[in-house]
Write a structure and sequence with these properties.
The protein is an all-alpha fold. It has one domain (about 5-135): TerB-like. About 70% of the residues lie in helices and about 0% in strands. Helix 1 (about 5-20) runs antiparallel to helix 4 (about 65-80), helix 1 (about 5-20) packs antiparallel against helix 6 (about 105-115) and helix 5 (about 85-95) packs across helix 7 (about 120-135). The radius of gyration is 14 Å and the shape is globular.
Length: about 140
Amino acid sequence: MTEAPNHHAALVYVMVTMSAVDRTMTDAELARIGEIVSHLPIFADFDQEQLVKTAAACGEILGGDGGLQRVLAIVRSTLPKKLRETAYAIGLEIAAADMEVRPEEVRFLELLGEALDLDKMTTAAIERGIKARNTVL
């Protein structure tokens, strides 16, 4: 990605990083990224043709020295405050996509919440909402 990341790219970076943080990008996680980009209102004006390119740009950053910290810095500096809770929520959606939240994903969520200056009560409420939304019998 040659241009500076925008809020769409930052949100995609959150999803890609969440999917990759445990070194296993599952089909369920990749499908959920596609669903989110296709259906969430925040992506209504996102050119879906850019998804693969944006994800690849994130992967390049993650593969470099200090990649995770660089992605978090980009997300923090790019997202307006009103989208920070959205970023956390979509990160959780990706973590929950394969019905198993791994320790690496929990740690990334902690780092993401800190990077976005989200308080514990806010993150707990978002987590509870995502858990309720993804509960199955």
